[in-house]
Amino acid sequence: MTKATVATCSLAGCFGCHMSLLDIDEKLLDLLQLVEFDRSPINDIKHISRPVDVGLVEGGVCNAENVHVLQEFRRMCKVLVAVGECANTGGVPSMRNGVSLKRCLEQSFIRGLGIEGAQIPDDPELPLLLNRVRPLHHIVKVDYFLPGCPPSADAFWRFLTELLAGRDPALPRELIRFD
Amino acid sequence: MPTFYLDDSEIPFTDGETILEAAMSAGRYIPHLCWRPELEPHSSCRLCTVTINGRPFSSCTQPALKGQKVECDTPALLAMRRAVIQMLFVEGNHHCPCCEKSGACKLQATAYLLGMQDSHFHHRFPVRMRDLSHEGVSLDRDRCIRCEICVRASRALDGKNVFAIHGRGIESNLAVNSPSGLLKGSAISPDDAAVRLCPTGALIAKGRGFESPIGLRAYDREPLSSIELREYQARRAVHD
Questions:
Q1: Residue A177 lies in a domain
Q2: Mind listing the pLDDT tens digit for each residue in B11-35?
């Protein structure tokens, strides 16, 4: 049987969703019978090498690089999944949306406690921040949403096995959690 | 006892009962956020919408009538309810992972009941004034869904008159009755029904956040629907 290919990434997220995916424990071995990982922080492959079946994207979109990566995922993934609260709603990072970017940067790099040589980082290699942190579906079409902060290991397992079996991966009520 | 039909079930009712009340008595849960059994119905959240002869009615205000055929759990109504709750989520800032009300929040629990897995619409990320001035109660207007439960509860149950809605449409907002417009200086108290009955994290009694660990919060172990049905039926038993 040909294995399905999966790519994963974390944008403006905390990698908690990836931790939760690893939390399926010994079922990881079963999962590896079904899928082969392309780009993912788990194997440290930096770019998607070929079109893949499923893209799991954790985190919201907070800077220009996030937009670039998300668009690459959309282009290369047959099925794109927004994983976790940040990808679904902007999550905790989007709590900065009520504050101007200038004030955020000044608070973090100029006025914050214990700062020496205060300056706002402006190295051209740093991706530019967006004025607001946005969920994935503001930027690209998203096929499925896996809620939770993070989605539980059971939610991951249920979602992936249903999806890979070609069934509707809608979660039962007890696995839908926003926290 | 006269009866009406809710989808395929025959529901008995007493004269003057609404469709929602009769359904709850019979153990049929119709999702709702602005309705409370101890308050006058408000009919603003529209989650309890049912159709009668193809026409939508809010079941919290529509009296039950003998022989009436009421449609409640049709695919179209379920999709409508999910869209309504998605709109409530994107209209405010509902950051469940860091909200003290999470796990005991009716808005969140109703979203779970309705199988909401995504927000569908674009988030507004509004910026409204928070009020942390009071020593015992906080008000986060970005979590308010304008159900007016606090407005009604403050007047009818607390014997106060702390809240009102001002403004119109998307600009409507919760106003506080005090000389400064802040909770500090109003008659509010953390034990008020207005605070206790808030279905979201908009009004919160301070100092109690995260008291219950995840897994032991109000709606962690049992869905909102079965808890509310049990409470409503116990209440009916006392009143009858």
A1: no
A2: 999 999 999 999 999 999 999 999 9
pLDDT band at B209 (very low <50, low <70, confident <90, very high): confident
pLDDT for A19 equals: 97
Q: Does A74 touch chain B (CB under 8 A)?
A: no
- Copy the structure tokens of residue A114: 């214990």
What local confidence, expressed as pLDDT, does residue A1 receive? 67
Give the structural domain span for A24.
4-170
In chain A, the number of structural domains is 1
Residue B218, domain extent: 1-126+213-240
Domain count, chain B: 2
- Report the candidate in B90, B5, B19 with the shortest Cα–Cα distance to residue B49: B19
Q: Residue B115: which region, alpha, beta or left (left: phi > 0; alpha: psi -120 to 50)? A: left
Q: What is the pLDDT of residues B73-120, one digit of tens each?
A: 999 999 999 999 999 999 999 999 999 999 999 999 999 999 999 999
Tell me which of B209 and B78 has the higher pLDDT. Answer: B78
For the record, the structure tokens of B8 come out as: 């395929």
B138 and B190 share a domain? yes
CB-defined contacts A:B, below 8 A? 77
Task: List, as own/partner pairs, every contact residues B183-186 make where C-beta atoms lie below 8 angstroms and the sequence separation is at least 24, other chains included.
Answer: B183/B131, B183/B133, B183/B134, B183/B137, B183/B138, B183/B139, B184/B133, B184/B134, B184/B135, B185/B133, B186/B134, B186/B162
With residue A145 as reference, give the H or E element that holds it.
strand A144-146
Which chain B residue is nearest to residue A155, measuring alpha carbons?
B117
Question: Does A175 map to a domain?
Answer: no
pLDDT at A39: 96
**Best residue in B95, B106, B121 for a mutation probing chain A (most A CBs within 10 Å):** B95
* Contact flag B95-A138 (C-beta cutoff 8 Å): no
- Indicate whether B239 and B204 sit together in one domain: no
Interchain CB distance below 8 Å, B97 and A179: yes
Instruction: Name the residue among A85, A170, A179 with its Cβ closest to that of B115.
Output: A170
Q: Do B115 and B135 fall within a single domain?
A: no
Q: Is the dihedral of CA A61, A65, A68, A74 positive or negative?
A: negative
Distance from CA of B126 to the nearest CA of A (A): 7
The CATH number given to whatever domain includes residue A56 is: 3.40.50.700
